[in-house]
Structure formats: C-alpha cells, structure tokens
C-alpha cells in the first residue's frame, strides 16, 4: 500500500470518527437537558375537559394498508377511547388491496350501529402513500385536532384526555406521546429495537423539547392541530418520512411541539428481520431525504437560535451516522496494517480514541434512558451492559443496509413506500410463520453481509501476526453483528 493511499484512508477514517464524536457530544448535551427537565414541574395551561364548552372536536385518523392480522384489534381498541361521541369522529384511511378490506368494512358497520362516528375511506390509488391518505382524510375531517395511529398501536382509553388539554396553548401545533412495546421481550431482535426506540423517546425527544429545539412527530401516537398542518403546507409525499418533513416545516413556522414522556402508547415491534429491514430502510432513507430537503432552511432561519440549529442539523443527520460508522468499520482493517507499516504515522491513531470516547458517552446516555423505564437496580445494570453491547453489535451489523438507504436518500433516488408488516404478536407463544405479508425475496445485501462477516473475521485474525489487539473487540462486535443479521435473514424465510 503506497503512502498516498494510506494518507487518504487515514483522512477519510479520521473525518468519519470526528463526525461520530460530534454526534455523541450532541447526545451528551441532550442528556444534560433531559436530567435537568426531570427536576422541573410542568405548569402548562390546559383545557378543562369537564367543561363541555372547552371540549374541542377531535378526528382520529387510522392510515392502513393490508393489515389483516391487526385490524380487528385496532378497531376494537379505538372504539374504547373515552371522549364525548358528539365531539369525536374516526377516519379509517384504508388503502388496502387485499381481502382485509371486506372484514374491515364489516367491523366498521358494526361500530357505526353502536353509535360511533366512524368512516371507511377508500382511495382509487395510493398516490403519496401514507402522506396522501392523511391529506385526503384531512380535507374532509371535522376535527379541530387530528390524532393519528398506525395499525399496530393500542392507545389507552383515556389517551385523548391526557393529550388534548395541552392545546389550550394556542402556539402548540403537536402533542406527541412515548411509544411502548407490547412484545419487547419476544426475542433479541425486539429487545434491541425497544432499547433504541426508548433512547429516542426519552433522551432525544425530552432533551430537545425541554430546551425548545426541534423534535419530530413520530408518524403515530400523536395529535396535530389542524390549523398547524395547513399552515405548514400540509402533508407531502416526496420523502419516505412525511412525519419528519411536516414536523420541521411546522416548527420553522414557529409552531411549538409538546412531548409527553409520561403518556405511553403501546405498539408492536417487528419480530422478523425482513420487517425490521424495511422499517429501518424507510426511516434512514427518509432521514437523509429530509436532510436534503430541509437542512438549508434550518441553517438560514432567522427565527431560531444557533444551538437549535446545531441540534436540528444533527437530528437531520441522525441516519447518516450509519454511513460514518460503516466507513470506520470498513477502513479499520486497512488502518491496522497502515499503523504497523508506517511507524511515523503512529500519532494519527490517537483519533481512534474519539471512537472510544463516543462509545463511553453513548453508554452513559443510554443507561439513563434505560433506567428511567426499566429501573436502576444492580441486576438491571448488569442486564443493561449485556443489552448495550448486543445492541451495539447488531447496529453495526445493520450498517451496510442502512448506509445504502442513507446514500439513496442523499443522492435523491426515489423508491416506493414499503410498509412494515404487522403480526399481532404479543407474547412468546405467538408465531409469525405463515404471515402472508412477509417479503418473499431475500435481501440482495445478504451476500455482502456474509462477505463482511468473513472480512471482520480476518480482521480478528490480523491481530495475531501484527501483535496488535487494540481493534480486536471492535472487529469481534462487527463479526457478531453481521453474522446475526445474515443468519437471522436466512431463518426469517423458514
């Protein structure tokens, strides 16, 4: 390897490490915000829902597409929502193309006979996908406020009573609640998904919201002021994360968002890796698309502080961290050989400490979010350590898949909105096998993921002849992570 190539590799590697380090510092700042906010009392003005004059009209929107396994559960649960029937309507925005349409229509008719104002709204095509369905429903919605739930969400009966009152403040455009997980302990895959989502819904959402930084409506389990949606330009389907897109447009228009950590809305996590893949791809590509679409508006806005701009840019770059992580992983083996070939470049390897520091920062941040939900006992801390490194390894294993999504987003490559199949799985006794919505094809990335598993096995072996074990733990986690993703992808076809 020539010196010039070695220096290029070192430069790219170092740049990626420094970007990861800045991301970890932003997370640390959010942790400080989060811990500070936990000590405060919320004195927000609220509607008095005991006074009929203060009860606003609410529309609940249920955007669905081929949800045979969860439709009955969804409709039965929504029917239990406690709110005056004269001030509530439900829109089932059904873009389904399978037989589930028939059963959904029957159940809606039964609920209508029980006096519920519920409408089955069908479109001729899926133009704009979920964003298009929400926009079409909004055009005829009677509600001043619009609550949205995906098909796998199960809000408590008093959900509206806990969220609607905050709209007494006329500057608030959105109230978002924390996601819960009804099948958290189903498998290793569901545990690590819950772990990552819990960090977002505690550390990140509270950390940003408590200081007035931009947060995002999470696509479900939240409620919008209709005026806010319209003022921000309405739903648009030009990105795969229409929720993040509208959230930023609304906040750039000075609308405030209210995040309620204490209101949990349970939902089902994907139990098969092909389903997790499609969800991860959509979220990460959508994040990159929104960076392209929105970041300049954030940077040039005259209405927001420099710190809010920083957190906004880092938020929009969230998914791009997978690209940085993948670059660091891929170049770590060449870096090992460069270190042992060009001794005079040894000082450069101090930048590796940035990754160690970043990992320690994330370890600390995630512990505070973990213990806020699971508890802070010694046993919980031991469980946390195991779960953190399992999560870290699997996240590394997803880095190729998510890097492809991020690159497509940044390069402007358009793709179809692929929904995440639902399974109606609540416990270990339930099975996903036989689900007709599962992807029939193996991901083409699997071949590369297998190759990367072997590549990082070679990285572990390289430590022996070079007598340099500094990167051995990192390569071990990469080997295990790519192995997990590869073999789970195979077995999900069983």
Which architecture of the largest domain does the CATH hierarchy give at level 2? Alpha-Beta Complex
Number of strands: 7
Structural class: alpha/beta
Overall number of domains: 2
Count every helix, treating DSSP H or I runs of 4 or more residues as helices.
16
- For the record, give the distance between the C-alpha atoms at the N and C termini, rounded to a whole number: 44 Å
Shape assignment? globular
Strand content: 5-15%
| CATH homologous superfamily heading of the largest domain | Spore Coat Polysaccharide Biosynthesis Protein SpsA, Chain A
Work out the helicity level: 40-55%
Tell me the Rg in angstroms: 24 Å
Give the helices and strands as they follow along the chain. HEHEHEHEHEHEHHEHHHHHHHH
By CATH, the topology of the largest domain is Spore Coat Polysaccharide Biosynthesis Protein SpsA, Chain A
Overall residue-averaged pLDDT value: 91
Highest-level CATH class of the largest domain: Alpha Beta
Describe this structure in words.
The chain is of the alpha/beta class and 494 residues long. The chain is built from 16 helices and 7 strands. Helix 2 links the parallel strand 1 and strand 2. The longest helix has 35 residues. The protein is globular and about 75 Å long.
Protein traits:
2 domains; globular; single chain; seven-stranded mixed β-sheet; alpha/beta; 494 residues; Spore Coat Polysaccharide Biosynthesis Protein SpsA, Chain A
């Amino acid at each position: 390897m020539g010196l010039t190539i070695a220096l290029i590799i070192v430069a790219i590697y170092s740049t990626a490490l420094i970007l990861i380090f800045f991301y970890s510092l932003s997370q640390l700042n959010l942790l400080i915000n989060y811990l500070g906010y936990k000590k405060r009392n919320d004195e927000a003005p609220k509607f008095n829902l005991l006074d009929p004059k203060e009860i606003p009209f609410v529309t609940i929107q249920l955007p669905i597409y081929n949800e045979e396994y969860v439709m009955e559960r969804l409709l039965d649960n929504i029917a239990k929502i406690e709110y005056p029937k004269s001030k509530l309507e439900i829109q089932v925005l059904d873009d389904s193309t399978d037989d589930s349409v028939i059963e959904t229509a029957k159940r809606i008719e039964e609920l209508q006979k029980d006096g519920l104002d519920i409408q089955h709204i069908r479109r001729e095509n899926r133009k704009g996908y979920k964003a298009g369905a929400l926009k079409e429903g909004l055009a005829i919605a009677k509600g001043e406020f619009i609550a949205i739930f995906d098909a796998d969400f199960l809000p408590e009966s008093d959900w509206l009573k806990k969220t609607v009152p905050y709209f007494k403040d006329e500057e608030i455009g959105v109230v978002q609640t924390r996601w819960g997980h009804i099948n958290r302990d189903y498998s290793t895959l569901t545990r690590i998904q819950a772990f990552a989502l819990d960090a977002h819904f505690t550390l990140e959402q509270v950390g940003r919201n408590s200081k007035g930084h931009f947060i995002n409506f999470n696509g479900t389990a939240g409620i919008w002021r209709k005026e806010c949606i319209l003022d921000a330009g309405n739903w648009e389907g030009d990105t795969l994360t229409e929720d993040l897109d509208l959230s930023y447009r609304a906040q750039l228009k000075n609308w405030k968002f209210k995040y309620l950590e204490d209101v949990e809305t349970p939902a089902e996590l994907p139990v098969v890796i092909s389903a997790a893949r499609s969800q991860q791809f959509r979220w990460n590509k959508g994040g990159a698309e929104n960076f392209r679409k929105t970041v300049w508006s954030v940077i040039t806005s005259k209405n927001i502080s420099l710190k809010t701009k920083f957190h906004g840019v880092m938020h929009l770059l969230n998914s791009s961290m997978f690209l940085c992580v993948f670059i660091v992983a891929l170049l770590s083996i060449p870096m090992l050989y460069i270190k042992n070939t060009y001794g005079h470049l040894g000082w450069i390897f101090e930048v590796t400490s940035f990754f160690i520091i970043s990992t320690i920062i994330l370890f600390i941040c995630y512990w505070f979010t973990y213990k806020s939900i699971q508890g802070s006992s010694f046993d919980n801390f031991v469980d946390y350590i195991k779960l953190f490194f399992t999560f870290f390894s699997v996240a590394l294993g997803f880095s190729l898949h998510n890097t492809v999504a991020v690159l497509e987003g940044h390069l402007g490559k358009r793709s179809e909105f692929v929904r995440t199949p639902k399974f109606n799985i609540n416990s270990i006794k339930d099975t996903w096998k036989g689900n007709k919505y599962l992807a029939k094809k193996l991901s083409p990335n699997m071949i590369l993921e297998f190759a990367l598993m072997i590549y990082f096995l070679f990285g572990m072996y390289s430590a022996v002849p070079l007598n340099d074990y500094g990167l051995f733990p990192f390569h071990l986690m990469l080997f295990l992570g790519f192995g997990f993703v590869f073999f789970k992808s195979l077995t999900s076809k069983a």
